[in-house]
Design a protein that fits this description.
Strand 7 and strand 8 form a beta hairpin. The protein has four helices and nine strands. The chain has one domain. The chain is an alpha+beta fold. The model has no long low-confidence stretch (mean pLDDT about 80). It is globular. A five-stranded mixed sheet has the order 1-8-7-6-5. It has a two-stranded antiparallel ribbon with strand order 2-3.
Length: about 160
């Protein structure tokens, strides 16, 4: 059975706000359950083979080129499109996106985690939440303050 090891070396850990996407979470969401689901999933990764994991609900290899291109744009890595990108559920809405890398000559897969997505990749048009109602898991600042700071730097 192949071992699965998470690799966080490529994960985006800054607050990310793009058109129709943010990795920030609404302030009213229980982020403790997201973190709990995260640890549960990696416990399952250590005990299961890849085939077993792919049978889990909402855990699958991403086949949509549109989603792959969106992830490539968010990660600013156009070569990601050619990788086997995997979606891992963290509860009802939240997802992790990563690509699978097989280590040669041994039976280990690296899950190279790329992106935390609290709302399953894309908000519908004009439904993006107000930054004042968001909190970022990756910064002590509120998202609204971070966006104001980013806008000042751009000017």
């Amino acid at each position: 059975m192949a071992k699965i090891v998470p690799d966080f070396s490529e994960v985006i850990i800054h607050c990310l706000h793009e058109k129709e996407f943010t990795n920030a979470i609404p302030k009213n969401i229980n982020y403790k359950s997201i973190i709990f689901n995260f640890f549960q999933l990696f416990r399952l990764c250590g005990q299961s083979g890849l085939k077993t994991l792919l049978q889990e609900e909402h855990f699958h290899i991403v086949n949509s080129n549109t989603i792959k291109e969106k992830i490539a744009k968010l990660t600013r890595n156009k070569y990601i499109v050619d990788e086997k990108i995997v979606q891992m559920p963290l509860g009802k809405e939240s997802r992790l996106y990563e690509y699978l890398e097989k280590i040669k000559y041994i039976n280990i897969y690296l899950f190279k985690i790329l992106l935390f997505d609290p709302n399953h990749l894309v908000y519908p048009k004009n439904k993006m939440p107000n930054p004042q109602n968001l909190t970022c898991l990756f910064s002590e600042e509120d998202c609204f303050e971070l966006i104001k700071l980013q806008n000042k730097k751009l000017k």
